[in-house]
Design brief:
With 126 residues, this protein is mostly helical. The protein has one domain. It is built from five helices and no strands. The longest helix has 18 residues. The relative contact order is 0.18.
Length: 126
């Protein structure tokens, strides 16, 4: 059974955008020190990139926590950072916590690392 945090909402709203679009938006927001929106856009870039690479199946309504859990199965070396990224997204989006430059930098670093990460193939032993 899947567990979803109370009040969890979909990661993406509006029409589909590419990972590159989300990254560009995140960088523009970060340049303006609009950290909450920058963190949100960077997390969307992370998830969309994983969908574009077919690490994740595109699925409307997926939450950040669900995306992190699913991606962690394919990218176990990044599991902790993926969970932390989902928590950061949830904290600033739903928890009312302020984002900051360091939070954004961690997401940006994760995004860049994941672009080079090789996923574990289904059925491959650990």
């Amino acid at each position: 059974p899947r567990r979803t945090a109370t009040g969890a909402a979909a990661l993406f709203g509006g029409g589909p955008r590419s990972a590159a679009d989300h990254r560009a938006a995140a960088e523009a927001l970060a340049a303006q020190s609009r950290w909450t929106a920058a963190v949100q856009e960077r997390m969307r870039a992370v998830v969309r990139s994983l969908e574009e690479r077919t690490v994740l199946d595109p699925r409307p309504g997926r939450t950040a926590d669900e995306a992190a859990a699913e991606a962690a199965a394919a990218l176990p070396d990044h599991a902790e950072a993926l969970r932390a990224a989902a928590r950061a997204f949830d904290d600033v989006t739903y928890g009312g916590r302020p984002a900051h430059a360091e939070m954004y930098d961690r997401l940006r670093t994760l995004d860049l690392a994941l672009t080079h990460a090789k996923p574990r193939l289904t059925g491959t032993p650990s």
